[in-house]
Automatic annotation (TrEMBL):
It comes from the Eukaryota. It catalyses: ATP-dependent breakage, passage and rejoining of double-stranded DNA. Residues 140-205 form the Spo11/DNA topoisomerase VI subunit A N-terminal domain. This is DNA topoisomerase (ATP-hydrolyzing). The lineage of its organism: Eukaryota, Metazoa, Ecdysozoa, Arthropoda, Hexapoda. The gene is LOC107221431. Its cofactor is Mg(2+). Its EC number is 5.6.2.2. The active site is at 168 (o-(5'-phospho-dna)-tyrosine intermediate). One of its GO terms (biological process) is meiotic DNA double-strand break formation. Keywords: DNA-binding, Isomerase, Magnesium, Metal-binding, Nucleus, Topoisomerase. Its main location: nucleus.
Amino acid sequence: MTFRSEEKFVEIPEVSDDGIRNLTIRRIEELTLQLIKEISSRTFPKLIYKEARKGGRVAELEDSVEQFRTRQTSTRNLSDCALNPLTSFDSSKSLSWLVEDEETPQNAQNPVNKDLESEKDSDTGRSITVDFRRKQSRKNLALLVTLMSHVHKMLINRTSKTRRSLYYELQSERNSARLAKNQRILDNAVNHVASLLECPPWQLGFTATSKGLVCGDLSLTFSKEDLVSCEVAGGVLIPQNVNRVTSARTSARYVLVVEKDAVFQRLIGEECTQYLNCILVTGKGYPDINTRMLVSFLGNKLKLPVYILVDADPFGIEIMCIYRYGSATRSREDRQLAFPGARWIGIHPSEFSALGLSSKPLAAPDKAKIAALKSREYVDETILDQLQLLRTGKVDIEAVAGLSSRFLTTVYLSSKITAENYL
């Protein structure tokens, strides 16, 4: 049942990021200078960063680049910045900035967030106040300044490094090792710096080591004429610089995103990419930025339908929502990372009976996640209905795959896509 389709080829013009790069450099210098002035005067600085409504700040940053290029270089206050930002300085005993926590269960109790007081504003999002009377808060500031120093150097020299290599660098430096005790603290701090500088994390020069995989009829060309072919047995790591793709070529009919690596490898073993003529992608659980960026690229640039296959449990549904709507804690990046046109192909709680599946009882974290999902503004009636059905129990993809040999590829997926049986 292999369907060949006409080859698609798209070229993406290279866009200089000099404007955003120069603006970010300038903001770092101004932030650092003001911090030095405040601390030298024996007063604690107060940085106030307010998050705009969903999807706003990155667009404003990019739209302001031309204005920045034409402005005369002059000494001015941050309140006169090209973006007219909501960042300001004041003498106080606290530092305040927006905190964006990772939307993954393991980050529910992040050490970075100690000594922080949260305040929710309906118009501007969540702001966090850091009390400088506490030791941890002073460490947080030291880590932010250290990261801004690394960012400034990389932007000036037009270089980059992985977050992992940065972590090891800090561990090797006597005065910096204590600032980030683990990779998770460092990753969260990088997101804080991006919030302060009002730019997406990937504009800072730090690259995250990809964990996602892609397999199928897809060739990607990058700015230095590097070619990545994804027709490799077992799949290839998703490139770290998807935003640098200059052209892409494929004859695939659609993209199939699966939640787990085990299912990804199983589908490769079933020759799913050939049988269904699809591009197979997995984020190995909660997807990283590179995986989400690739899925968005394939949907938006190559105009391929995107289908998502996840476990019929609350965490699987949340992963589907991240691909479709974006992480609730990274609203300013959603415009580039989310693909609202993605279709939830399964597993649906409403299918349990028809497939003769026995569900497993929900654990306490499952029930808590259902409640959290119901409160998300993007969750529509269709998803709410499935969440309600899910209260009776959960089923993983492997239970469906085990119904018969190659059942996922030759029966479940092919029939559902043909019948347009998706949500």
